[in-house]
Each structure stands twice: as structure tokens, then as C-alpha cells.
Write a structure and sequence with these properties.
The complex is a heterodimer. Chain A is an alpha+beta fold. Chain A is built from 20 helices and 10 strands. In chain A, helix 5 packs across helix 7, helix 15 runs parallel beside helix 17 and helix 17 packs across helix 18. Helix content of chain B is about 35%, strand content about 20%. Chain B contains 7 helices and 7 strands. The chains are: A alpha+beta, B alpha/beta. The interface between A and B is large, with 41 and 37 residues.
Chain lengths: ~650, ~180
């Protein structure tokens, strides 16, 4: 009964979304507000129905309803309560429901916030958002029905992919999907601007906060994905240039470009066409990402699901790209640039360069990801593109981007005077060069590491210079130090929010540089009581224990870690799930600000007399996660309501 | 070309990318040829779900369809179970034997599976996992077609269809032993 209710809710929601999309468009064309109102009600109805779908599927998981195929595949009687909830979006069907639900939620908020303020754009925004929703509801009802039945009903289910039994799995997909679906909002506004011909700044002003929110959740999703990879997959890394990681990284790159290039349009009336194209591209890349993850077209360790769904996504991607780009071509004349670049030494040109670099990075990632497919299509040879390609191309691009991160916010608009350059950059450059000399003197041999660290110091110095200059100006007005700094952050929240986000990125850069340059590892077989040494640590093997968990069998080793004194006992494990061919690693680690001790259990003797262990000392990795926290603060600051304009 | 026409190059630029992605559907990234095809099938002696002995050697001279499955394998194993049963009934009198090997499973769940589908061909349990390792089983279901001389002649990944079953079996039946 419950599953039938769920399927029915999805079908009604699909009908409502289609009706709403058509009604809003017709209402806008014929000037009938009643139709737009009706579309609004339809969107509300869709939200309620999709919420019901989600709740019913969760209920089926909690009650072990194995007559539902999706439940039987993704849970079994041993699955703990917590993972029965996260298991709802552990595979394709449920994750599409989660996705659709978020989209419905965003639509609801857009209605609440913009039904008055968006004027002519509003009905078309509704049309676009409801059309996208209709597509996902079509997937739910036709291509990947989550409530499909299974006969005969099995006695027990297969169980969740063990790699997904992790706390990171509640937050990682949720954050990433909030980012992916969030991009729909600026995309809808951009299309509405193209359809109505109101391609001025209104759509950009209205979607500024939305873009930051979507960008922030994409960033968070990527970072949590890195954390999951680091502490679950057991290879000691956080990023592998896997196609599915790339799928999330590409829209992040183009969204970052967009966040910067809109400022040029706001200030200088330039780049109208470019901004619209960036939003279309970003939205297209989110669809492409889903296509990649869900179609199984490109083999990936991440490809948890696959099926006929790829055809659906590819068709929709084609429809979206061709429609949106055709609209762009149609409005070409209205989009030709009004402003012109006055000087190469100016903020707009720094932003332009930032955009070029980000798009170049996105393109190389795209190229590297689809190259195996391209090679097979053209030469009939299957090849794979590995991390060396991505690193070689992207590391210089990112270093240049970090440099621009220091230049862009401080250099003057239009044409930077020598005085502006001297006041803004004399100190930061001096500090950066000094830092480079210091790092070299300290014995850092890797040129790349010295360069990355010196650039980080340079950018941090520009932020310090700017902030102290503005604070001093306020002190001269008679304010006291702390209120002056607080008022600055609050009043210019957009600017300083951006700075704090930049600081977060710098901290992430520090973590990436440190972990790439200075991490060490060794692999060794130890008899009980024997110890291995690495980077000042002694790791002694104390024995094995075996336990029967609710849904797997676990063999854990006990290793005492000491550096003169005993620090802790780490218990890396191997977990044997009945539904998996090979055991799953259970990593154990001791995190620190300077370095992490990270143990992975390899082969072991059944009697516990000896075990192979991979021992890693990973440097500065914790700063990647700390950088994520700083980035969160910055994004929050940037989306606070504007104080400068009277409310 | 005038700028008026040039602008339509923007939407057209998406076409080659889309075409490449569409091409992706024609290839299967999991389609890895098995090195075992053409080699002698490794021997095994297991017990059926009912506890009777079952050895591959004893089937020499017959065409053997060796199917690896598990009760937790949805939907593929559920789709192919009736196909295997149907074709086993059709071909058993012509010197064809279907052998199921249940891997990484619980005995009760496996017995319920064979009961639910009314499977009448012999099904063995690979309790140690040795047989699935010998055959390089990557995931269930996988099916090996073994000729009368005991050589693996074809491997089918995923649920077996009527067509795949007949095609492979007819080919092996048409060969003369010798």
C-alpha cells in the first residue's frame, strides 16, 4: 500500500509540475496573473507531494519493506538504524528523490522571496524551475522508480554498499546536492532574463546570494567528499581526480568564475554575454555530472549506480544546452558589450584573467575526464588519464589563480595608478619574497612548495594590508578598535566575506601543499611485539581481535603509537561483508595540526601472530578541513543582508 | 560569414560534445574479455544446498552451463533464475547440464531462493570462495559455458537471457567431440 501511495504521489507531482510550468509561461505571455498564481500553487503542491514520497521511502527503509526492490538492494536486517536513514539516498533512485525534494524546496523559497521583487522575470523563473523539476519527476516515475516491487519477496536484503556506511555519507551528498540543485536558481533567472529580453543587471542582483549559496554548498560537498575519501577509502589521500570527483569540481570552477565576473558587470556593465554563458555552462555541468555518475558511461570507482537512466540525462542535457544557447544567440544584439577595457593593469582585467584561468582549468578537467571516451571513439583504444595529467596542467593554473587572489581585490578599477600599486602591493610583495627566502633557508627543497607557500603569504598580506588600512580610517573617525573592525565586517560584509573565503582557500592550499610535499609512508609486516619506525614515531603491533558486528565480521589490529611516550593505541581493521567480494578497510588515525598518523591494516596471519600494516605520516592535512570551516564563516558573512542600503 | 549567422555557432558548438557522450552508450566499460576463455575449466568438488556431493569432473562429456549467483543479488539473479530453469528443462535431454554455484550467501536464504523459483538443476555452495576465485568471478551473476571436453568457451556477465543461453549452448552442441 505504502509503495503505491509513493508512486501515485510522484505521478501527481509530475502532472502538477508540468501544469505549473505551462501556466506560468502562458500567464506571462498573455498577462494573466491568475495563471501565475495557479503555477505557484502547483509548485507548493509539488513540494508537499515530493516530501511525502521521501517520507514514504524512508518509512519503507525503517520497516525493512523488502517487497520494495530499492529497499531490498540497499538495506538488510543487520543495517543499523542510522544507516537505514542515510541508505535512503545511498543509490540512484533515492538520491534522485532527495535531489527533487531540494529543488522543490529551493522553488518554494524563490516563490517566498521573489514573487514581488522579480517582476517580469518571476513567471519565467517559475517555468524554468518547474520544468527542471518535471524532468526529475519523470525520471522518478519512468526511468528509476524507487517504489518498484520485487517478487518473490526475499527473506533479507542485500545491504548498503559498505563504503557508504559512514557519517560522511549523511553530509556529503546532502551538501553536494544542495550545491547542484542550488545552481538551478541562477540558471532559471538567467533564462528568464533571456526570454524576457531584460538582460540587464536585475537578474544578477537578484541571484547574487543564490549563487553564493550554491557555490558554498558545492565547496562544502567537495571538502566533505575529500574527508570521506581520506578516512574511509584507506589510501591516505583526499582527492584522486576520479571522474565523479571531477564531475563535482567542474561546476565549482565555473561557478567560481561566475561569482567573480558578475562583479565586473555590476561595476563596469561589461561581460553580459559571458555571465549568461557561465551560468548556462555551470548548470549544464551539474547535469553532466549527474549523467557521468549515473549512466556508467565512464568507469569509475565511484560509479555506484548505472542503468538506462543515462539516456534520459543526456537527452535533457541536450535539450537544456541547445535551448539555452539558442536563446543566447537570439538575444545576441542586446548583449553586445557597452563597457570597454581601459587598461590591462586594472581590477576588471585581473578578474578577466581569473575567469580565463578558471575556465581553462574546467576545460582541462573536462578533457581529461572524457578523453578515454574520445580515444575509444576515434581510435578504438581504451586509455585512462591519470592524476599526473591533471596535476601537471592544473597546479600552475591554481598557483596563478592564488596570485590573482591577492591582486584582484586591491587593484583599482579602470586603470591602476602607480600610487595605487605601490600602496597596495609594496608590503605584500616584500613579505612574500621574504617568506620565499625564509622557506628556502629553512631547507624546503621543493620549488613548488616554496612558491605555493610564498604566494599564500603574499595573499594573506594583501588581506592584512587592506583590513588594517580600512580599520585605521575608522579609528581616525574616532571609533574604537573592536567596534571599528566589527562595523567594517558588518557594513562591507560582501567584500570582507569574500576576503574570509579567500583566507579559507589559502588555508586549504597550505594543507594541500603540506600533504603533497612532506607526507611519508612505509609498509611493513610485523610479528606480535615488533615495532616499525617512521618520522620519529614507533608503531608496535600488539595483536589481533575479531568481532561479529550486526552486518559484518571485523578483524582489527592493535598498534601502540609512541614517540618517546605512548600517544595512543590505533585499531585499523578489515571488515568482511557477506555481500562483498573483498574486505573493506577500516582506517584508524590520530589527527594533529602538524601531522596525522594514519594506519591501514593489510594481510594478517589468522592466529594473530603477524600482520602487514601501511603506516603513513601525513603532514598538514588537518588544515584542509580547518580551511573549510573558515570558508563557511566567509560565505555566511557574504550572504548577510546588505546593511548599506536602507531597508 | 556575417555576425548574424556566426552567433548560431554558439548552440552548434554543443553538438559534438553531446554526440561524443551519446557514443558512450555504445560501449560498456565493464566489458572486459575473460582470459579464461579457451582454457580448461578448473575442477571443483562441492556440496549441493541439500548436502549431496557435486563435482564438475562428473559432467565431462556434457555441455555445462556454470552459473554463479547469490540470493542477495537483485535484480539480475532474480531475472535469470526462471530463464535458467526454463532452458535447463528444454535442453537436459540433449546432454546439457546447468550447475548453479551460490557464493557468499547464507544457507537458509539460498534455499529460500531455489524454493521460490522452483529450481530443479543442481545448486552447490562455494563456502570457502575458492571456486569463484578460480573462475575470476567479479560480481554475480556470471555464467560460463563449458564444452564437452571441459574447456571454457564463453563467459556471460549479468543476467543470462534466453537468447544468450540458446546461442552458446547450440554452438557447443553442434560441435562433435573428438
Amino acid at each position: 500500500m505504502i509503495p503505491e501511495l509513493g508512486s501515485a504521489a510522484a505521478i501527481v507531482a509530475l502532472a502538477l509540475a508540468l501544469w505549473g510550468a505551462v501556466a506560468a509561461a502562458t500567464g506571462a505571455r498573455t498577462g494573466r496573473p491568475a495563471l501565475v498564481l495557479s503555477a505557484q500553487h502547483a509548485a507548493l503542491g509539488v513540494f508537499v507531494l515530493v516530501t511525502a514520497c521521501f517520507a514514504l521511502l524512508t518509512y519503507a527503509f525503517l520497516t525493512f519493506d523488502f517487497s520494495v526492490r530499492y529497499v531490498a538492494i540497499n538495506t538488510n536486517l543487520g543495517t543499523p538504524f542510522y544507516y537505514r536513514i542515510t541508505g535512503v539516498w545511498g543509490a540512484l533512485e533515492g538520491s534522485i528523490i532527495l535531489w527533487t525534494w531540494m529543488l522543490a524546496l529551493y522553488t518554494l523559497i524563490v516563490i517566498l522571496r521573489h514573487r514581488e521583487s522579480a517582476h517580469e522575470l518571476y513567471p519565467w523563473v517559475l517555468t524554468v524551475m518547474l520544468s527542471v523539476m518535471a524532468f526529475f519527476l519523470l525520471v522518478i516515475t519512468v526511468a528509476a522508480p524507487p517504489f518498484a516491487r520485487l517478487t518473490p519477496v526475499p527473506a533479507d536484503g542485500r545491504g548498503l554498499n559498505p563504503l557508504l556506511e559512514d557519517t560522511g555519507m549523511i553530509t556529503h551528498p546532502v551538501a553536494l546536492y544542495l550545491g547542484f540543485t542550488g545552481v538551478t536558481v541562477p540558471f532559471a533567472f538567467a533564462l528568464a532574463a533571456l526570454i524576457t529580453g531584460r538582460v540587464g543587471d536585475a537578474w544578477i542582483t537578484l541571484t547574487r546570494r543564490w549563487s553564493i549559496i550554491a557555490w558554498y554548498f558545492l565547496s562544502l560537498g567537495l571538502l566533505i567528499g575529500g574527508w570521506w575519501s581520506y578516512h574511509v577509502l584507506g589510501w591516505g589521500g583526499y582527492w584522486a581526480w576520479d571522474p565523479v570527483e571531477n564531475a563535482a569540481f567542474m561546476p565549482w570552477l565555473t561557478a567560481t568564475a561566475f561569482l567573480h565576473s558578475v562583479m565586473v558587470q555590476e561595476r563596469r556593465r561589461m561581460l553580459k554575454l559571458w555571465n549568461l554563458w557561465l551560468v548556462i555552462l555551470t548548470f549544464g555541468l551539474t547535469l553532466f555530472g549527474t549523467f557521468l555518475t549515473r549512466s556508467g558511461v565512464i568507469a569509475s570507482v565511484h560509479a555506484f549506480t548505472q542503468g538506462s537512466i543515462g539516456v534520459f540525462f543526456l537527452s535533457f542535457l541536450a535539450l537544456v544546452l541547445l535551448t539555452a544557447l539558442a536563446l543566447l544567440a537570439w538575444r545576441w544584439d542586446a548583449l553586445s558589450a557597452q563597457g570597454e577595457l581601459d587598461s590591462v593593469v586594472s581590477r576588471e582585467s585581473a578578474f578577466l584573467l581569473n575567469n580565463v584561468l578558471l575556465i581553462a582549468a574546467a576545460f582541462t578537467v573536462f578533457f581529461g575526464t572524457v578523453f578515454p571516451l574520445l580515444s575509444e571513439a576515434v581510435r578504438g583504444v581504451k586509455v585512462s588519464v591519470g592524476a599526473p595529467f591533471f596535476n601537471q596542467v592544473n597546479v600552475p593554473l591554481f598557483l596563478a589563480l592564488i596570485f590573482l587572489m591577492g591582486v584582484g581585490p586591491l587593484i583599482a578599477w579602470r586603470r591602476a595608478s602607480p600610487d595605487n600599486l605601490r600602496r597596495s602591493f609594496l608590503w605584500p610583495v616584500a613579505v612574500g619574497v621574504a617568506a620565499a627566502a625564509l622557506f628556502s633557508a629553512l631547507g624546503i627543497r621543493s620549488t613548488l612548495a616554496v612558491l605555493a607557500l610564498a604566494l599564500t603569504v603574499f595573499v594573506a598580506a594583501t588581506i592584512a594590508v587592506d583590513f588594517s588600512r580600512a580599520t585605521r580610517a575608522r579609528l581616525r573617525m574616532g571609533e574604537r578598535l573592536l567596534p571599528a573592525m566589527g562595523g567594517l565586517l558588518r557594513r562591507h560584509n560582501r567584500r570582507y566575506g569574500g576576503f574570509v573565503v579567500h583566507l579559507g582557500i589559502l588555508i586549504v592550499t597550505l594543507g594541500v601543499t603540506g600533504s603533497q610535499a612532506w607526507s611519508v609512508q612505509t609498509e611493513t609486516t610485523l610479528r606480535r611485539g615488533e615495532a616499525a619506525e617512521l618520522a620519529g614515531y614507533r608503531v608496535r603491533f600488539d595483536g589481533l581481535t575479531a568481532t561479529e558486528e550486526s552486518n559484518h565480521f571485523k578483524v582489527a589490529g592493535a598498534f601502540t603509537v609512541s614517540n618517546g611516550r605512548v600517544l595512543s593505541v590505533l585499531r585499523p581493521a578489515k571488515k568482511f561483508y557477506p555481500q562483498e567480494q573483498s574486505p573493506i578497510a577500516g582506517v584508524d588515525y590520530r589527527l594533529g595540526f602538524g601531522e596525522d598518523v594514519y594506519l591501514v591494516l593489510g594481510d594478517f596471519a589468522r592466529d594473530g601472530s603477524e600482520a602487514t600494516v601501511k603506516l603513513q605520516v601525513n603532514r598538514l592535512v588537518s588544515w584542509i578541513w580547518i580551511g573549510g570551516a573558515v570558508l563557511t564563516l566567509g560565505a555566511l558573512l557574504a550572504i548577510l543582508p546588505d546593511r548599506r542600503k536602507p531597508a | 560569414m556575417t555576425p548574424g549567422l556566426l552567433r548560431w555557432l554558439i548552440p552548434l558548438s554543443a553538438v559534438p560534445v553531446l554526440a561524443l557522450l551519446a557514443y558512450g552508450f555504445r560501449v560498456n566499460p565493464r566489458d572486459i574479455p575473460s582470459p579464461l576463455v579457451g582454457r580448461p575449466a578448473s575442477a571443483f568438488a562441492l556440496q549441493t544446498l541439500e548436502g549431496a556431493p557435486l563435482a564438475l569432473e562428473a559432467q565431462r562429456g556434457k555441455v555445462v552451463v556454470l552459473n554463479f549467483w547469490a540470493s542477495w543479488c537483485y535484480p539480475a539473479c532474480y531475472e535469470e533464475a526462471p530463464v535458467l530453469e526454463r532452458n535447463w528443462r528444454a535442453y537436459r535431454d540433449r546432454g546439457v547440464v546447468v550447475i548453479g554455484v551460490d557464493i557468499q550467501d547464507k544457507l537458509e536464504a539460498a534455499q529460500k531462493f531455489t524454493r521460490d523459483f522452483g529450481l530443479s538443476f543442481p545448486n552447490a555452495r562455494d563456502t570457502t570462495g575458492k571456486v569463484s576465485v578460480d573462475y575470476g568471478v567479479y560480481g554475480v551473476p556470471e555464467t560460463f559455458f563449458i564444452d564437452r571436453r571441459g574447456r571454457i568457451r564463453a563467459k556471460h556477465v549479468g543476467a543470462v537471457t534466453d537468447e544468450a543461453f540458446r546461442l552458446n549452448v547450440e554452438k557447443l552442441l553442434s560441435e562433435t567431440t573428438g
